[in-house]
Specification:
830 residues, 6-stranded mixed sheet, 5-stranded mixed sheet, disordered N terminus
Length: 830
């Protein structure tokens, strides 16, 4: 395997031999592919991740050339926004002036009257040329064969029969299967198996041989390799995720490189096996494009114009966001009374709606925003599970192992037995339904027994499947369960958190939250998750900061640690004094129904029951207000114009839009809550609490700009890409989805693994629910401090310098005062 032959990942090292040079070229191409996470923890990721070291507009041209990929919507969208008044000639004029283009707005707009949207000119790989010459869609055929094999090789337990040997390296497994696959020869590729058999077993040697046969010009090899990977971008992205995990934990990359070797060999085999005299001549002409593609800007002039419209649209959206901060009365923290309740929510845009309603209903409640894992990076093991789930951002390594517990041994054993029995029955039932003989019995006599359940499920009267987190638990168990933070042993591994580490984690969390004093009587730690059925991408609606899981475990661990007497004693030495009557409550906000569940009610003394009851009533009222607000937005979707439908969506198996998730996200505000408390962001802004005057050395600011800011940009760009080119970076029509290999979906029965969001997540059938806007990050902190962090972290600076997000500074009065340009330069806002 490649990862065993070379562990040096640096591409800047001196190339000493042809093998290392080839490996370096393959690695550079592979790093242009962003990873995609499986459905079990489908977290948002920036699909342009490997390209952010270049300017946004340059990448747009690169991707257009390499894969016909779009990074803007059709010009008709922007012209429509002008008619609606959301985009004006002044915005376009400002953009033209910024780019030093000597053309008037009217003259510029006139160019779109006769030429609306043309497909970008892209390079052709051999399969494309062969499809034209032979009049058979070889590109589609190859993608289908590769996807079929990859689904088998990467299978995560879905397949009953698996034809691929997963013990082999990626390239070896493909070659072993391709040598006996008769489908290509039956389709017209003469002697395909013989040609595959003659390929070297070493993936690098095979890649070198393929490149030699294909005759790609040296200056065009990287573009060709990138184009190859984009043709099967879904499986390339999944291989990239395996490399990501390996490198995160100190291992080596190599999966994408081996996958690229497979793609190269398919191209070379295609060239050898197609007997058509015109193919060589047409391929010779086509590959010249790899040498002259540097003139792509001239080839795609229409794209250049649409990029100007997109930039003007970004400017218009930014001005609307900035205006929200002007003329709004801002409460002064120094004059406000100590709150009765503090509620710490995830920075998620859906939390903004609930927080606003909660504070409106009860002014004695103060809310804060923080990444939903609450600085407790844990490996969470539910009852009945052998392995844990990483409850932290994918940027971070997993922390201590935490076990789910019940209050007593009797209830623990009951839940354990129920869950084990449920799993065994599910496995037996799956085998029965899928068996070669027993499936006929299932479809006919047994299938009829499903009719009553099918009817009740169709009318959303029942939930088709139990909630995965509630299996084996009754309502009382759900609120009684807890987490074990004390040291113990699980599967011969240490579980729990040592006392010293608990104190340090508590200090770090409270400091990062800017919550080191003025504690309320009740402090809610509110994780979030969604409840929906028949949605393969359901985890994408859960908490991304918790690795695509709900934030319940993290909230419970945080509350348990912060309620611990020994931890509080330890915090006193750090000048953090938590009052005796302050109780931290672990909660979960269901973003589909806007209901909040409190888990550790047992930590609250019985004499404070009235206080708890009042809190529950307030939470219910806030949820009611949030549901009404969401109804106004969801009413655009057919069949969802009643209040009852909001609650029914969570258990309706036929609902294509159980909720809109993070669609519409446009801003990330890092500032004290009083700066945003009286502003309605319409559920389109991430809100992170931060007070820079409490941040010694700006360590917390650095953490925010290198973690939450990166993650929110990932979310923003995932929605952006799924909107502007759902064919490549989205997952198409969710009603056609078929789960494959237990890790992703196909749209229909074949084709590439689909990445990104389904069309229904960004469009309601009539209008875009997410419009392509790059994230506006607004931070209240000294510009000098932000510049130091940008200078220190190149990846963060690339996002700002190259136009992947907009960085704005807030002044001491709560107004957005400066905009980051590039090269550590800022301009004063007008």
């Amino acid at each position: 395997m490649i990862e065993h032959t070379l562990t040096e990942n640096s591409t800047s090292a001196k190339i000493e031999n042809p093998r290392e040079e080839l490996l370096s070229i393959l690695r550079r191409a592979s790093k242009k592919i962003a990873p995609v996470w499986p459905l079990e923890n489908f977290v948002a990721v920036n699909p342009y991740m490997g390209l952010t070291h270049k300017k946004f507009e340059n990448v747009a041209h690169d991707l257009a050339a390499a894969g016909g990929i779009k990074m803007t919507l059709p010009s008709s969208f922007y012209l429509q926004k002008m008619e609606e008044g959301k985009l004006t000639q002044e915005h376009i004029a400002a953009t033209l002036k910024k780019k030093n283009l000597a053309i008037g707005v009217k003259e510029f707009l006139q160019t779109f009257k006769t030429s609306d949207y043309a497909e970008p000119i892209r390079v052709l790989i051999l399969a494309d040329v062969a499809s034209q010459v032979v009049d058979k869609d070889w590109t589609r055929f190859i993608i289908g064969r590769i996807s079929n094999w990859a689904a088998s090789y990467f299978d995560n337990g879905q397949a009953i029969w698996n034809s691929s040997n997963q013990a082999y390296s990626l390239f070896a497994a493909w070659k072993e299967e391709a040598k006996i696959d008769m489908t290509p020869e039956l389709t017209g590729l003469k002697d395909f198996r013989k040609v595959v058999h003659a390929l070297p077993d070493d993936p690098l040697k095979a890649a070198e041989l393929a490149l030699t046969k294909l005759g790609i010009p040296e200056e065009g090899i990287e573009l060709y390799l990138h184009s190859l990977l984009l043709r099967v971008g879904g499986w390339s992205a999944y291989a990239a995720r395996l490399d990501w995990d390996n490198e995160l934990y100190g291992g080596a990359d190599g999966k994408v490189i081996e996958f690229l070797a497979v793609l190269l060999c398919w191209e070379a085999c295609l060239l050898d096996c197609i007997t058509n005299t015109n193919l060589d001549a047409e391929w010779k002409t086509a590959r010249k494009m790899f040498s002259i593609i540097h003139v792509q800007t001239e080839l795609n002039q229409q794209l250049t114009k649409k990029l100007i419209l997109q930039e003007a649209f970004d400017l218009a959206a930014q001005q609307n966001i900035v205006k929200k901060f002007r003329g709004v009365s801002k409460s002064s923290k120094s004059t406000r009374a100590r709150p009765n309740v503090q509620a710490i929510f995830c920075i998620d845009v859906r939390s903004e709606v609930f927080r606003r309603h909660l504070e409106f209903i009860d002014s004695s409640i103060a809310t804060l925003g923080f990444a939903g894992f609450f600085a407790f990076s844990i490996n969470y093991v539910p009852i009945g599970h052998e392995k844990g789930e990483a409850q932290c951002p994918v940027l971070l390594k997993t922390g201590p192992t935490i076990l789910e517990e019940m209050p007593d041994k009797e209830s623990y054993q009951r839940v354990l037995k129920t869950r084990m029995l449920y799993r065994q029955i599910q496995q037996i039932w799956k085998s029965f339904k899928s068996g070669a003989v027993t499936c006929f019995s299932f479809v006919s006599p047994i299938g009829l027994s499903y009719l009553p359940k099918l009817i009740t499920d169709s009318f959303a009267l029942t939930r088709p499947v139990p909630h995965p987190d509630h299996i084996g638990l009754n309502r009382r168990d759900i609120k009684a369960k807890r987490v074990s933070i004390s040291s113990s042993t699980h599967n011969h591994e240490v579980a729990g958190i040592p006392p010293e580490q608990q104190i340090q984690m508590a200090k770090d969390a409270l400091t990062a939250m800017s919550l080191s004093d003025d504690f309320a009587n009740l402090v809610l730690i509110v994780g979030h998750g969604s409840s929906m059925v028949n949605n393969p991408h359901a985890t994408g609606y859960d908490c991304g900061a918790c690795g695509g899981h709900t934030g319940e475990a993290n909230a419970s661990v945080a509350a348990a640690v912060l309620n611990d007497k020994r931890v509080r004693e330890g915090l006193k030495k750090e000048n953090i004094f938590i009052p005796l009557n302050t109780i931290f409550l672990s909660c979960l906000h269901d973003t589909t129904t806007d209901e909040v569940t409190i888990f550790n009610e047992y930590d609250l003394p019985s004499d404070r029951k009235e206080e708890l009851d009042n809190l529950k009533e307030t939470l219910e009222k806030a949820g009611h207000g949030a549901r009404i607000e969401r109804l106004l937005r969801l009413a655009n979707s057919k069949g969802s114009n009643t209040f009852k439908s909001i609650l029914a969506r969570s258990k309706d198996w036929s609902e294509p839009r159980p909720e809109l998730g993070l669609a519409g996200c446009a801003a990330f505000v890092v500032a004290p809550r009083e700066r945003t408390q009286n502003i309605d962001f319409e559920g389109r802004s991430f809100l992170h609490s931060y007070e820079w005057k409490k941040d010694r050395g700006f360590a917390v600011l650095e953490l925010i700009m290198t973690a939450p800011m990166i993650v929110t940009s990932w979310i923003s760009l995932q929605y952006y890409a799924s909107t502007v080119d759902n064919r490549v970076y989205g997952s198409g029509n969710k009603t056609l989805h078929n789960v494959t290999a237990g890790i992703g979906v196909l749209e229909g029965f074949s084709g590439d693994l689909r990445i990104g969001l389904p069309w229904q997540a960004v469009h309601d059938g009539e209008n875009y629910q997410h419009e392509p806007i790059k994230l506006n990050v607004i931070i209240e902190a000294p510009i000098e401090a932000m510049n130091i962090i940008l200078k220190k972290h190149k990846a963060v600076r690339d996002l700002c310098d190259n136009g992947w997000l907009h960085l704005l500074a807030m002044d001491g009065e709560g107004n957005v005062s400066h905009r980051y340009e590039s090269n550590l330069n800022w301009e004063k806002m007008d």
